Amino acid sequence: MFWIFKKSNRKLFFTTDVHSHLVPGVDDGSGSVSESISLMGSLNDMGVDHFIITPHVTARRFENDATTIAEPLAKLRSAVAESGMCVEIDQSAEYRIDDFYEEKVLKPRNFMPMPNNHILLESNWQQEPLNLDGIVYNTSTCGYQVIFAHPERYRYLNERYERYEHLHNRNLMFQVNLLSFSGFYGKTAKDTAFWLLERGMVDFVGTDIHNHKFLHAIEAFLKSRDYKRVLKLLDRSDIKNDTAFV
Length: 246
Known about the structure:
By secondary structure, this protein is α/β, with parallel strands linked by helices. Strands 3-5-6-7-8-9 form a 6-stranded parallel beta sheet. It has a 3-stranded parallel beta sheet with strand order 1-2-4, with no helix packed on it. Strand 1, helix 1 and strand 2 form a beta-alpha-beta unit. It starts with 15 loop residues before the first strand and ends in a 13-residue tail after the last helix. The model has no long low-confidence stretch (mean pLDDT 95).
C-alpha cells in the first residue's frame, strides 16, 4: 500500500516529538492506523523523525499498560514500515497522577519509560495533587527523570509563578505544548508558555497531537508571528528534545 502525505515547507525546531497520542484506539487520540500514519507523515515532512508515543494512562478511563498497547502499536509499526517513512518510534506513556498511577504503576514499578529513563507525568487541570512533590520524588527515586507535561495548562498553577519556579528548581523538567504558544488552549496558557520560555524553564516541547485538528493548527502556527517569536526566544531555554534520548 502507498501513502500520500501533504508536503510542507515549514519546519519544526525539533526532530524528536516527546508527546503524542498516535497509538490507534487506546485513548482519546488517533482512532485508526490510517489516521496515525497520516499524522506521522505530515509531522515527518515538518522534520520529525523520532516519535516518542505517549498514550494516556489514567484511572478508570484509560488504564493502559504494555499489554493493552502492544497489538495496536505493532500494527502501527508495520504500517510505518509499509509506508516507507524513515522514522524511529519509542513507546512510553503519559501518566496521570491519580490512584491508578500510585497503586498500579509507582508501587510495583510497572513503568513504560521514555529512552534514558524519563517519565512523563500529568495531573488534572483544576486542582494540584495533594502530594505532587512527594510523587515526583518517589518516581525519581525509582531511577527516573520526571517530565511534567504541559504545566502551562494547569489552572491551579497559572499565575502562581513562584510555584513554577519551585517545581523546576527541584529538578522537575517542564514539557510545554507547541500549540500553547499559538493560543490553541487559550490566552492564559499562551501567556504562561511564553513566560516559561523567556525564563529558561522549558526543557521539552511536544505536539501532544491527537488528531487532524491538532495537525491543521500546527500547520497554521508555523506560518504565524507567534512561531517567529518562539524561534527568537529559543536560546533562553535549553530545549532537550534532540539531546536527552540519544
